[in-house]
Every structure is written in structure tokens, then in C-alpha cells.
Amino acid sequence: MRSDPGVEKSLQELERRSAEAGQPVTVQRRAALRALVRHLDHPTAEAIYADVVAELPGVSKATVYRALDNLVELGLARKVHHQDSVTRYDGNSERHHHLVCRGCGRIEDIASDALDALPVPELGRNGFEVHDVFITFQGICRDCRRASRARRRSK
Amino acid sequence: MRSDPGVEKSLQELERRSAEAGQPVTVQRRAALRALVRHLDHPTAEAIYADVVAELPGVSKATVYRALDNLVELGLARKVHHQDSVTRYDGNSERHHHLVCRGCGRIEDIASDALDALPVPELGRNGFEVHDVFITFQGICRDCRRASRARRRSK
DNA sequence: CTCCGTGCAAAAGGTTTGCACTGGT
DNA sequence: ACCAGTGCAAACCTTTTGCACGGAG
């Protein structure tokens, strides 16, 4: 893997936002961010830990969890939740939405102007102040559809 | 609490779908469903357990979890996930979406034709078959906004 | 010197599972 | 009667926390 310009940009953002928030930028946090943006597949904390520990033998799992919290706090990552009980992280800070496969739990990104133009309904009526919108399409990915078809046939 | 017709209808559905699926309808499952539909606030498994155990002293927590799984499997309930680490359940089978408060984690239902008319983007291109769409508005509910304002003032 | 992040290990939930027993159909 | 659901307790897994240590300002 060559030094991806996206990674560089993310690291600069980390630098900038941490300074702004008065928080130190440690090697562990840098490594966590690098591991996160390298993944396009919404990794679990475990997966990121695996990457970080490969780069920084001896890091503790707690530190990775704390680093991820820190990234979320700085707005460089987002937590993603679905039926899996594990939390996944998303290093994509562009506005986008998700496609979740019921079969394998895989999450794919999806961007769409139409979705972004979603009308925010008459909120405020109940005093609710909307900050963000998350749209999740649930379905079956190609691989899982194939697999379930094969399973059905063999039954 | 009088016998809500909605509860009756749900119980009949439970009967019908269980028979169809060849699954027995136990008192525990009936109680779990009743507890679920009584809640309009997306209860946790814990909350449902509390209700069920009040009605059926001696039920085990495992049974309630299994009953909830069963209801989800039968399509009578849905799991709802957000930043809280706990899974919440939704007994509302109408098409609707959610308003999640960042502060207290409370989930409110929201229905809107505009949201239902959401265009499904060019899926299929990647072989993804969409079954469902979930829209979540995240923000701050009135109570939490008030609370945070008060906190800020007292600092 | 002081503060804060780290590592380690243990705790803390929430959820699942193995096994013997009981209850639905 | 049979099979599946239940109760109980232990296991599991992910995430959090307490505490001592160590590096940076």
C-alpha cells in the first residue's frame, strides 16, 4: 500500500482538530485513524485493534477503544449500528448512507443527492431538534442471495 | 388498562403466524408480545422482561430473550439499534421511522408520506436487493435540550 | 512537577448456551 | 407421546473502568 493521500489528509485533520480541542495526538491515535481510514468496510473495534496491534505491538485493547472514542468525538469517525451486537466504525466523513446486508451484515456506503435532499418533516412540533439523518437500506447482497439460493436448492 | 383491541389483534397474529411456522404459542411468548405492544417507547429486552416477570413470576431472562427473537422471526417485532449498546424492540409494524435523542437515547416514532416516497437509488447495479428502508433522525429532544442548557448555565 | 494517556487486568453489562425438565400440540 | 420451549446458571463477548506508570509540556 502506498501512502494514500486520503490518509494524509485525515491525519492532518486529526492534527488540526486535536489542537483545536486541546488534545494530544499520540501514536496510538494516529495508528487508529490510519487503520480506520484504510478500511472501506466499516470495521469493528476488534478489526481496528488487530491492525493497530500489528503496527504497534503491545497496545492495549482499551487504548484502541479510547482512541476510537476520541476520533468520534473529533468528528473523524462515526459509529454505525445494526443487528450485529458489535459496534462498527465508519471513517468516511462525507455525507452518505448505508446499505446493510441481512445475510452477512456487510455494510456498503451509498451516496445520493436525492437522499440528501430528504425533507425533514415537521419536527419542532414536539421540540425535537434534528441534527442529522441516517438512512439505511436493508436487503440482501449479491453473495448472500446466491448462497441462500444454493442452500434452498440443496434442501 | 382495558383490553386494547390492538393487543388482541397482535395476539391473533401471533397465533396465526406461529401455526404457519409450526411453532408453539406459549404463555411466555404471549406475555412478551403483550408487553411489547403495550410499550410505545421502544423498550429494551430488560424492560420487557420486567413486564413479563410481573405477570409471570419465575420466567427466566433467557426465555424473554428467546421469545423476543421469536417475535422478530415471525415479523411481529423489530430490533432497533442506535448508539446505546442495548438492543431495543419495536412492536409497531406499520411503516414508520425514528427520531433518536442523542442525550437520553429515547426513540420516538415518526411517520411521513414524504419519507415513504423516498426514491430508492440505483441499487441492483451492485446486485444488492433492497427490502426495507430505515430512516433515523438524530438530534436532541426537548427535555435534553433544556437539561443541557441548564447545565451550561450552572457551570 | 503536573497532567493525561497508556497498559493491564478486572469489572461490567447484555446476550447466548448447555442441560435437564416441563409443557404445548 | 414427542418435540420444542423453559429455567437456571454458567459462559461469552464487547466495552468500560480503576489504578499505577511514564512521557510530554
What does this structure look like?
- The structure is a homodimer of 155-residue chains.
- Chain A is an alpha+beta fold and 155 residues long.
- Chain A has helices at 5-21, 27-38, 45-55, 61-73, 113-116, 142-154, and strands at residues 78-80, 88-90, 97-101, 107-110, 129-140.
- The N and C termini of chain A lie far apart (43 Å).
- The mean pLDDT of chain A is 87.
- Chain A has two domains: 1-91, Winged helix-like DNA-binding domain superfamily/Winged helix DNA-binding domain (Arc Repressor Mutant, subunit A, Orthogonal Bundle); 94-155, Ferric-uptake regulator, C-terminal dimerisarion domain (Dna Ligase, domain 1), CATH 3.30.1490.190.
- In chain A, the strands form two sheets. In chain A, strands 4-3-5 form a three-stranded mixed β-sheet. A two-stranded antiparallel sheet of chain A has the order 1-2.
- In chain A, β3 and β4 (107-110) form a beta hairpin.
- The A-B interface holds A 79, 81-83, 85, 87, 99, 101-102, 108, 110, 112, 114-115, 118-121, 123, 126-142, 145 and B 79, 81-83, 85, 87, 99, 101-102, 108, 110, 112, 114-115, 118-121, 123, 126-142, 145.
- Chain B binds a DNA duplex (25 and 25 nucleotides) through α2 and α4.
Can you tell me the overall shape of chain A? Answer: globular
What is the C-alpha radius of gyration of chain A, as a whole number of Å? 18 Å
Largest sheet strand order of chain A: 4-3-5
Measured distance between first and last alpha carbons of chain A: 43 Å
Largest interface: A-B, 37 and 37 residues
Percent strand of chain A equals 15-25%
- The number of helical segments of chain A is 6
Instruction: Please identify the top-level CATH class of the largest domain in chain A.
Output: Mainly Alpha
